[in-house]
Amino acid sequence: MSTTEPIDAPMNATPAGGDVVERHRLSTRLWHWTNVVTLVIMLMSGLMIFNAHPRLYWGKYGANPDYAWLQIGATQANTGFLRIGSLTVETTGILGRWTDSNGQVRNRAFPWWATIPQGYNLASARRWHLTFAWVFAVGIGVYLIRSLWNRHLQRDLLPSAEEVKPSHVWTDIKHHAKLQFPTGEAARHYNVLQKFAYLLVLIILIPGMILTGFTMSPSLNASTPWLLDLFGGRQSARSLHFIFACGIVLFILVHLLMVVLAGPINEIRSMITGRYRLPKEKK
Amino acid sequence: MAKLLTRRSVLTGLGYGAIIGGTAGLIFSPSFHDMVLSTGERLAYRSHRLIGRDALAPEFTEADLSPDFRTNGNTMPKSDDYQRHMDTGFADWKLKIDGLVAAPMEFSLAALKAMPARTQITRHDCVEGWSAIGKWTGAPLAALLSQVALLPSARFLVLHCADDFGGDAYYESIDLVDAFHPQTLLAYTMNDQPLSVGHGAPLRLRVERQLGYKQAKYVMRIEATATLAGTGLGKGGYWEDQIGYDWYAGI
Ligand code: HEM
């Protein structure tokens, strides 16, 4: 199940372009797709929760009378806006003021097509969010432990000393810029930028989402008060929760783009069945 | 040529299909909300009670106080009774504690203020996402409960309030862990001033490890009960019954 030997090449032989190899373990595949579904639910229900109070603050407290560093809203003149600090962008139709699926104009932050549920309902959004949060947190927890245990993290995701040398990273950046993807034997492993991206998501962004989420719980503030100190207060944790979520969205966009560029059928099949056909060397 | 469609990949595919199909079926079933989506609340309640049953909510300093503590919910109870109490400065207002207690009692505001008081600077978190820090003084609920002596069958305290939404009086409820928690107060002072009408005069609950809608304002009566089934529509609070907020609001 977790063998990385090529399937039809003789043992010990170096696989070449065109060979099919085992690429992803069952644990990776299960986590990956569970996480895709869970994350979509978390993001969309999270946007609905944000809609209940579309303002973000730094510090221990923050409410309507206090300065919000980020705000989404609608003006008296019926335009939607996004304000970050002193920078205001008009966003009518997408953020702040938009038309719902029944043709009704709404003054709400995130539009109906981006939220769970689609009509304003904080109670329901919280239930989705706080139930699937368990799947999300248990999933990444089990996955990280499993990946340490079977050395997936150390072997496949942690870059080697050679790979983190600036010259190597720079070469990899140039290859990405020219849309040159590794072929043959070299394609059996993640490249260094890919490793950085996966580690960023697995070690920083997803755990960061979970810990800042914990920090917003008044009950956990009592039992684990050090989290408040770590993130600088409940409203700072709420802001960071949102910023980490934006980081994950950004990762997903780049991730999907790379999957499409690298050959989506072979790539996605590898994440479903585990088997991957090494791209052929250029003649 | 490798076989890409092996028996195992077909079985794996069928497995994924079953998971996706099952999930879709669940999502569109009517009981999904009630059954599956209350899992988060149940797990949070159990795990929070397990890891921090008696933990104290963080307390802050005067320097941390919100310059302007906004109000929320009702800010002026409409009933004639309440208006009369307001006009007389709550002089003959009484808090009643009854239900599953050995000795039902009534407490005047003066009697509550004569009891040993606790002052705490804590953060109030609205379910919508904002927070405000305020200073509260009040009588610990535990002290009142020891006077009325809860019966062994009591499991919850239901707070009945003077304000209403379209004729439905506000109510909330807490379990006995929160009821006897040292920071759970019936507060009559906020930021060193008598509690204002907007913030719940003459008496509001502070149950510091839960969200704002649990902090019942205008508390008139506290009823000890064995279950929440007989209160409102049975979910334990006005917003719980009306729009489905979780009864356990520790997150
Ligand atoms: C429909 C959306 C998605 C598709 C089609 C997709 C596809 C893929 C594919 C094909 C790979 C393997 C890449 C390779 O073998 O070189 C992969 C790996 C990975 N993806 Fe996704 N992905 C999706 C969404 C996500 C999301 C939402 C996340 C999390 C934020 C995510 C995180 C990861 C991670 C961490 C890996 C590396 C897994 C490991 O080796 O441990 N993906 N994805």
TrEMBL record, chain A:
A molecular-function term among this protein's GO annotations: heme binding
One cellular-component annotation, GO: plasma membrane
Keyword hit for Membrane: yes
Transmembrane segments: 30-50, 128-145, 196-220, 240-262
All copies of domain Cytochrome b561 bacterial/Ni-hydrogenase, residue ranges: 23-274
A Pfam short name: Ni_hydr_CYTB
Keywords tagged on the record: Cell membrane, Membrane, Transmembrane, Transmembrane helix
Subcellular locations according to the entry: Cell membrane
Topology versus the membrane: Multi-pass membrane protein
InterPro entries documented for this protein: Cyt_b561_bac/Ni-Hgenase, Di-haem_cyt_TM, Hydrogenase_cytochrome
GO biological-process terms attached to the record: respiratory electron transport chain
Cross-referenced PANTHER family: CYTOCHROME YDHU-RELATED (PTHR30485:SF1), NI/FE-HYDROGENASE 1 B-TYPE CYTOCHROME SUBUNIT (PTHR30485)
Protein name: Cytochrome b/b6 domain-containing protein
The organism's taxonomic lineage, starting at the top: Bacteria, Pseudomonadati, Pseudomonadota, Alphaproteobacteria, Rhodobacterales
Automatic annotation (TrEMBL), chain B:
InterPro entries linked: OxRdtase_Mopterin-bd_dom (IPR000572), OxRdtase_Mopterin-bd_sf (IPR036374)
Record-annotated Oxidoreductase molybdopterin-binding domain positions: 91-226
UniProt xrefs under Pfam families: Oxidored_molyb
Protein name: Molybdopterin-binding protein
Native organism: Fuscibacter oryzae
Organism taxonomic ancestry: Bacteria, Pseudomonadati, Pseudomonadota, Alphaproteobacteria, Rhodobacterales
